[in-house]
Structure formats: C-alpha cells, structure tokens
Amino acid sequence: MSYTSRLTHAFQNAPVLPLDARSRYVLISDCHRGNGTWGDNFLKNQTLYFTALKHYYAQGFTYIELGDGDELWENRRMSQIIEIHNNVFWLLSLFYRQGRLYLLYGNHDMEKKKPHYSDRVCPTFFCTDSQCRQPLFPGLTFYEGLILEICGREDRLYLTHGHQADPLNSTFWRFSRFLVRYFWRPLEHFGVLDPTSAAKNYTHKDRVEQRLSDYALKTGRILITGHTHRPRLDPDTPQYCNTGSCVHPRCITCLEIVGTEMTLVKWTYDTRKDNTLYVSREVLSRLELAEV
By the 8 A CB rule, do 92 and 212 touch? Predict the structure, then answer.
C-alpha cells in the first residue's frame, strides 16, 4: 500500500466535527508522555503543557491530540504513564466528561487502535482530589483520522498523525519499535540519536514532509499532522500544516482554531523586568481558513 493510500484510508471512517463561528479547537501532537525516568522526553515541558491545557479548558476549547500522546515504544505499561502524569490525565478526563476530547493514535502509540483499548488498559486513574480511583475515559475510541467540516462550505480540514507517509513508522512500525526498545533507546543515553526517526533525522523529516505536502496538493485537501515535530502554518502554502510537538528543547507548539481562523502558538518560559519567571503564549503565524 502506498503512502497516499494509507493517508486516504485514515479518513475513510473518520468522525466529522463541525467548524463554525463558535468553534474552538486546540490541536496538539507528539507529547510522548513517558514513565518519569531519564528517557521521558515529556518531563522537561510538563509544566508548560499543563499550563496550556488549563488555559484551553477554561476557555472552552475542544482538545484534539494528533497521535503519539504517550510513548508506548519505550514503555510497555500505560498504567505507569498515567500514574506519573496523574495531573495531566485528570485534566484530560475533565475534557472528556464535557465531550471536548478527541484522541488519535500515531506510530508510537499504535497499540491504542485495538478495540476497547481504553476500557481494557487504562479504565481508571487515581484522583488526588478525591483520594480514590475514578473512571478515566470510559468508552473512548482512539481514531486514526478526524475531519473538521467548515459549515456552509464544502471545505474540510483533514487531521491525522502523519506517520502514514513514513513506511518505517507505518507498515514496518513493529520492526521500528523493536529497534527503539532494544537498540536506539540504550544508545540515546550516550547521545546517539535514532537515524530512522522523522523527528531527529532532518533528511528523513524533509522527505516525509514533502510526501505529506504532495498528498495535500494532489487531493486538494487541507492536511494537518504532527509526527515530524516541526511546526508549520504558512499562509502562502496553507494546504499542509503541522502542530509541532511538546518535546521541543524549550517550548511546546500547537494549533488553535477559533471560528475560521487558525493560529500557530508557542508556549514557553519568559521573564518579566523584575526577573520573575512566567509561562507565555506567543503567536507565531495566523491563517484565515475562509481565504484558503
């Protein structure tokens, strides 16, 4: 199966959500939440992420995670990830209870595609507020793709992780997982990066992004992905966009959609004149979808 066929297949049974003047969506990808050890790349930005998540919850956004939310290649037990990042899953459960949570799977959490994964593997979490276990995401389905349909127009936004354009991380994902678990992860401790990773190998990253961009142009679709960790929202070439990731060295990036305006945002640490530290939200670029 070609990468174009894999991408098209991702949207065959995808849910369709409305996009109108009242819509508020935040698109985040590649959190790679781990088990709290030295290999947990999410740890360095967990405060930035939680601060951003609280902001979007308070502002009435619907949270859409475009895959690789949890690092299930390096870690075998989802329960450990939930236990370590208890505060994050508590907040995500609040989104879910209000019908404002959609989770896609990527190559690093492909296990979530299995039927009833949420109820079987992570049915509950320990709530520190109530000091007891509570349901996490009862009945949740993890999707490969999701579609946002602009009301009153035939235009749609096509959301998926993007690994479909990367054979090593789609067709041969089990082999790649084996290499990460038993070969590249131990070497990463000594500073050796995985050359097969689209996030770490720039030649590979460019190739995957070119395929994603070509697919968007050939199909006439607006395609939004993660996977490569490189944020992108270019008004001159709006057909392919990328959320970036939550494991950048000093920031996290995401896409906000309010009405028909899409904004690429960076959350990072900053200092005031009195040297106090705070979390800032910085707009990187904007795109009016009605003009695409």
Answer: no
Q: Report pLDDT digits (tens) over 1-10.
A: 799 999 999 9
Phi first, then psi, for residue 172 (nearest 5°) are: -110, 35
Q: Where are the domains of the chain?
A: 3-291
Pair type for strands 16-19 and 240-242: unpaired
CB distance 25 to 256 below 8 Å: yes
Going through the chain in order, the beta strands assigned E by DSSP cover 16-19, 24-28, 62-66, 101-104, 124-127, 132-135, 145-150, 156-160, 222-225, 240-242, 251-258, 261-271, 277-288
Please write the tens of the pLDDT for every residue from 55-93: 999 999 999 999 999 999 999 899 999 999 999 999 999
**pTM of full prediction above 0.70:** yes
Architecture of domain 3-291: 4-Layer Sandwich (3.60)
Tokens of 189: 């401790």
